[in-house]
Write the structure tokens for this entry.
Amino acid sequence: MVVQLFVRTFAGMKQMRLLIAAAVVLLMVGCLQDKVGGVKVYSDPSAEVYSLPNQESLFLFHSSGPWKATSSEPWLKVVKESGPGGTDTLKVVTTEKNLTGQERRALVTLVADGETCTIDVKQRDEYAEFDQDEFNIGAEGGMLEVTFRTNISDSLQLYVTGSLAKYLEDTRKKDSTTNGTRAEGKGNLNWLRVLPNTDTISRNGFFYLALGIGENYHVSLDTLVFHQDGCKPDSTINQ
């Protein structure tokens, strides 16, 4: 079960083309019978990725001879850097989050038979990151002291999964429009109260900071592991 604690509508984002690009690659495969000199990229020679590691982009190309590919930036890795002539797919992958607070670009250069073709990859600037990887609390519960850093405003979302999810209380006023304490790119989840655990079985869960895309889609940017102790036998905990 997913508990969505606050949601904001995200407006003005450019439409993502990842699924469309995959379909275009499949359609283009049967259209590459004509030989070209040097190297030519048949799919869109540009891509946009999120501020996350392991974001992949694929580019269909044809070369008339052996080819080599290099990336201009260390945060973008070319998975296969060379190959023989013919039709092939170039895959690039991000190696790290973009925590600069600014959009950044990398150029991938394809070279074959003395000719050059460039591919432009943009990594978006939105980030959200917890200040810790794990949070533990006793069986008695209490307020959640978890802080995070982000440059996202209206489209920041928080999701909770696991057995912990139904034992959280939102202490904000019903008419509140804030996402908790926010100042200079910092946030705090101190408006969430963890209810006491009167069971001997511990509770576990995951918190996800996410970027909202439209009304029904989000991208998880960071994860926090949560653990609450179980109640010791013969002990009494006030609800």
